[in-house]
Amino acid sequence: MANSPTPTPATIVLAGSTGALGLLIAYHLRQHGATVRALVRLESSHSAEAESLRLQGLEVVEVDYHSVADLTKACQGADCVVSALSGLRPVIVEAQSRLLDAAVAAGVPRFIPSDYSADFTRLPEGSNRNFDFRREFQERIDQAPIQATSILNGMFMDLLAGQAPVVLQGPRRVVYWGSADQPLDFTTMRDTAAYTAAAALDPTTPRYLRIAGEVTTIRDLQRIATEAAGQPFKLFRVGSLGFLKGMITVTKTLMPAKDEVFPPWQGMQYLHNMLSGQAKLPSLDNDRYPNLHWTKVREVLKKAK
Ligand SMILES: NC(=O)c1ccc[n+]([C@@H]2O[C@H](COP(=O)([O-])OP(=O)(O)OC[C@H]3O[C@@H](n4cnc5c(N)ncnc54)[C@H](OP(=O)(O)O)[C@@H]3O)[C@@H](O)[C@H]2O)c1
Fold this sequence. Notes:
- By secondary structure, the protein is of the alpha/beta class.
- The protein has helices at residues 20-31, 48-55, 68-75, 89-105, 129-143, 189-200, 218-229, 241-254, 264-275, 297-304; strands at residues 11-15, 35-41, 59-63, 80-83, 110-112, 147-148, 150-152, 155-156, 167-168, 173-177, 184-187, 208-210, 214-216, 234-239.
- The relative contact order is 0.14.
- Residues 16-22, 41, 44, 65, 84-87, 91, 95, 114, 116-117, 153, 155-156, 159 line the site of NADP nicotinamide-adenine-dinucleotide phosphate.
- NADP nicotinamide-adenine-dinucleotide phosphate is lined by residues 16-22, 41, 44, 65, 84-87, 91, 95, 114, 116-117, 153, 155-156, 159.
């Protein structure tokens, strides 16, 4: 009897491969044995990140994101394009659209856009600038002859260790607006990357995949922070959600920083979307890939301490 042929490993094109999330997705794709073509900008092709990708056995391809022809060449023969690009409209809408056009032109069947966020699909326009860009790209990809899958993971849990002004280690306070009982979705960047890699290699993914390493309320965070630190944390309610909206307007006026991807007022918009429940993930697809590990808030806060 003839031997059955060894299945060819899937080829994944990875945009934003030199970024924090992109590097982790690259690692997990390699763990699955995928062939990974990592797209890098000319100016980043000799960076430490690009070098690390080469050492991991990825094919590093220099591309000009302004050239659909260049991108089409890079997409030839791929099974899926995964984007982990980060930026404002010129990146999330414009560069990703050129990458989408290239994927379609090259006949790539699937595309995972750089969403990796709370559930922006039901949010009103203008409530979060970065989510507006994602919805604009969503309209384009939903018109394109390609199978799109967005990964929605809530807030990166890693941010609770410092960057997000929620769990304050110094004064031992958990800061919030509105209700302390609103459930909130958190997933570490690493767990999001592992899930994205599994989804990239799964030809049957639906339009959206929603995940959360842990769903907690502010009151839960107070308890978890207290356990992790071994010292009591108190709740600090700054005000209502309406008050937070007012703070966003003032911060935006005083510190517009419009060219920054994550200025303080954008982080505040993110918190408003989560604390209002409008960006809550309605259901979770964690179990789709059973072998994945889900990091808990306690582990992240323990490390922060
Ligand atoms: N849910 C959350 O809480 C949360 C938090 C943070 C980020 N995110 C999302 O996660 C995704 C990845 O973010 P990250 O933190 O990994 O970003 P990052 O570390 O800043 O990496 C961004 C990547 O995009 C590339 N890039 C930036 N501008 C570009 C341009 N004009 N043309 C082509 N490539 C460009 C960078 O390439 P170079 O190396 O060449 O600069 C890099 O590879 C984004 O969608 C981001 O919004 C989610």
